[in-house]
Amino acid sequence: MLLLSPTMLAQQSTSITALNELGPENSAMAQRAGLWDVIETICSSPTSTPTKQNLVVERRMVGSFLEEVLESAPNSAPADIKRIDYLSFNRIEGRWKYVSMDTRAPVGLMPAASDDRGENGSIHLTFEPSAIPTASTNITGQLVLMQELIVQDSPDHDRKDQYFNVADGSGKSKSWLGHRYEYVRRHAQ
Description:
By secondary structure, the chain is mainly β. It has 2 helices and 11 strands. The protein has a 10-stranded antiparallel barrel. The chain starts with 5 loop residues before the first helix and ends with a strand.
C-alpha cells in the first residue's frame, strides 16, 4: 500500500478540486442550460418514411455534467416518452463522455464517448454496441452500432443526429440517419 505524505495529499486534493471545475468545454456546455422545444424526426430503417414528434427538453448543469431530460410536449402523442442523458468533457481523458437512457427502447444504459475535444461547435460520439429488439413474438435482438453528431448551430439552436448501422453479418450494411433532434431555445415571455 502506497502512503502519501501530507504534502502529496494536499497536492492531490488541489488537482482534484481543479479538475472538478468546469473548464472551457463544460463552461461552454453550461450555456446550453434552459428549456428547449424539440422536433424529433425518426426513420426506423433506411427505407422507412420519416415521422415527426414534438418534445420538450430541460437542460441543467449537475456539477460538470449537462443533464438533459426529454419528454413529450404537452398535448402531443405519444405522451409517455422520457429520455435522460448526461454529457461532460472529461479533462483527464481529453474527450467527451455521454450516457443516455430512454424509456422507448429496452436497451438499458447507452454509453458513448468522443475521440477528441470536438471542433467548431460539434461533438462526434461513438456508442458502445447495443442489442435492439426485433419484430418477433420471441424475445430476440439484433446488434446495432450508433454514432451521434451534436451540432451547436447558434446560441438558440442545436441539432443531434443519430446514425444507425444494424450488424447483419454481410459487411455491406449501410448507416442511416435514424433520429434527428432539432432544438430551439425557449425564451422567457
